[in-house]
């Protein structure tokens, strides 16, 4: 359904960029902040690339004014950031750390003073360590009440100043890598029954926050951000088409159906019940999920890549292979679920150095699918290219590959809008370079280069504008017209 209309993006479109507290803030124990599960996890040798950690990250905590000034100079319309739960509740859910609240007040106020709409993510993977030690965090239903209390604290503190809220970031990623592949805390593998129960607990926590939000932030908008991987059957063989359906139910709709409809996909639930690994419901759970879904205002989408799906026999590959964290292209192995599907590389698409397919049309496919299935507005909460960037002697950074990547994705988003999708915002990942979780600091995503090397004892943390910084500034100023 290609359209000839090449006008600018909708009026009041939120041109944005994003970050996460653990990946940018540093100051891991400053001003009363307590440790998170990531502060502990990264200290275990071999968990991250070259044992990098977020103790300093890019020190956004102490470079706050400079970073917001750079955003304002770019003309950014929205800045999506997360709040560190352990900065607000460092060691107990009974005592709030006022200095933690004050830091985010300062960030929000700086954004508003510079006409930047703050967009808050409540949880971006950094659970307070004391909750993990107390009852194993997301594995216990106790976390539901604690998350609600944390969310309510934020709504009461910032609700008069922040309109856009994201409850949970990439629930499908942190649960899979925490309980199935042992790559994230709590570093467990193949705990399938527990994995689905953890997800159920997260859904309930999300639901409680959504319902509390209605009274505390009138006029606000709330949703969750999901790591969307649109899929293609490898060919038209019926078994591969069915494999794609299985993949979509278990890897995409399992989460989005709950956020938007308040229920799990039937075929997927039946499959998990047959295996004996389906989540267990307590009285009131189904009603809570259904009621919260009525009040979700948008679907948040983090989009980086699509997947190819092929039938996987019972003796086929599983998810225990190699995940590329080094940037050595071609080192990632094919993951899958025996008896259902596997995900070979798409031979029709290029890949990044980390073996992620580059598929701009996939973001349009995802928007259309969400529009048709859920009829919800969409916030693109993350989209970006991780790459090796080079700081030249004159302080310039030439990243035409990033400009091309973002431009092609924006063109597809514009087409999705013309086809009927309501896209409210587009947030690149990321504004500054940052710690890329398992991948260290060499995998750079930002418009702003930060002199932070994993080998350096005392990196300068100096900020440099990349070519993509100036490009995005022009895109924002023209409301996207210069794309065409």
Automatic annotation (TrEMBL):
Highest taxon of source: Bacteria
UniProt keyword annotations, A-Z: Glycosidase, Hydrolase
Family: Belongs to the glycosyl hydrolase 1 family.
CC annotations in GO: cytosol
InterPro entries from the UniProt entry: GH, GH_1_N_CS, Glyco_hydro_1, Glyco_hydro_1_AS
Protein name listed in UniProt: Uncharacterized protein
PANTHER family recorded: ARYL-PHOSPHO-BETA-D-GLUCOSIDASE BGLC, GLYCOSYL HYDROLASE
The keyword Metal-binding is assigned to this record: no
One Pfam family linked to the record: Glyco_hydro_1
A GO BP entry: carbohydrate catabolic process
GO molecular function list: beta-glucosidase activity
Catalytic residues of the enzyme: 382 (nucleophile)
């Amino acid at each position: 359904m290609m359209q000839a209309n090449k006008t600018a993006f909708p009026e009041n479109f939120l041109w944005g960029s994003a970050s996460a507290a653990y990946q940018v803030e540093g100051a891991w124990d400053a001003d009363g902040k307590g440790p998170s599960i990531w502060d502990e996890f990264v200290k275990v040798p071999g968990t991250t690339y070259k044992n990098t950690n977020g103790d300093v990250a890019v020190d956004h905590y102490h470079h706050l004014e400079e970073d917001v000034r750079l955003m304002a100079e770019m003309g950014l319309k929205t800045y999506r950031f997360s709040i560190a739960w352990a900065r607000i509740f460092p060691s107990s859910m009974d005592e709030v750390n006022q200095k933690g609240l004050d830091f985010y007040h300062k960030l929000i106020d700086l954004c508003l003073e510079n006409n930047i709409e703050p967009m808050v993510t409540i949880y971006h993977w950094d659970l307070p360590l004391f909750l993990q030690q107390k009852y194993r965090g997301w594995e216990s239903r106790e976390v539901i009440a604690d998350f609600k209390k944390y969310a309510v604290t934020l709504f009461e503190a910032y609700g008069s100043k922040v309109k856009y809220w994201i409850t949970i970031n990439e629930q499908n990623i942190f649960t899979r890598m925490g309980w199935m592949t042992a790559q994230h805390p709590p570093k467990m593998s193949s705990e399938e029954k527990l994995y689905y129960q953890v997800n159920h607990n997260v859904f309930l926590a999300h639901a409680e926050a959504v319902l509390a939000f209605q009274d505390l932030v009138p006029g606000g908008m709330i949703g969750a951000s999901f790591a969307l991987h649109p899929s293609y059957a490898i060919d038209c063989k019926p078994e591969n088409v069915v494999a794609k359906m299985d993949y979509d139910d278990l890897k995409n709709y399992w989460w989005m159906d709950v956020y938007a409809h308040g229920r799990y996909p039937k075929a997927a639930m039946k499959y998990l019940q047959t295996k004996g690994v389906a989540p267990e419901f307590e009285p009131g759970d189904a009603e809570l999920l259904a009621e919260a879904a009525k009040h979700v205002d948008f679907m948040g989408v983090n989009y980086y890549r699509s997947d190819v799906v092929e039938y996987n026999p019972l003796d086929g590959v599983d998810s225990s292979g190699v995940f590329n964290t080094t940037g050595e292209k071609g080192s990632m192995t094919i993951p899958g679920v025996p008896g259902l599907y596997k995900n070979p590389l798409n031979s029709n698409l290029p890949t990044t150095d980390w073996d992620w397919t580059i598929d701009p049309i996939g973001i349009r496919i995802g928007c259309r699918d969400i529009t048709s299935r859920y009829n919800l507005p969409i916030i693109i909460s993350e989209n970006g290219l991780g790459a090796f960037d080079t700081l030249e002697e004159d302080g310039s950074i030439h990243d035409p590959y990033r400009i091309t990547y973002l431009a092609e994705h924006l063109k597809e988003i514009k087409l999705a809008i013309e086809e009927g999708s309501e896209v409210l915002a587009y947030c690149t990942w990321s504004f500054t370079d940052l710690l890329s979780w398992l991948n260290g600091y060499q995998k750079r995503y930002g418009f702003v280069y930060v002199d932070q090397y994993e080998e350096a004892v005392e990196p300068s943390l100096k900020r440099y504008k990349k070519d993509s910084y100036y490009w995005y500034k022009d895109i924002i100023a023209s409301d996207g017209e210069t794309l065409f």
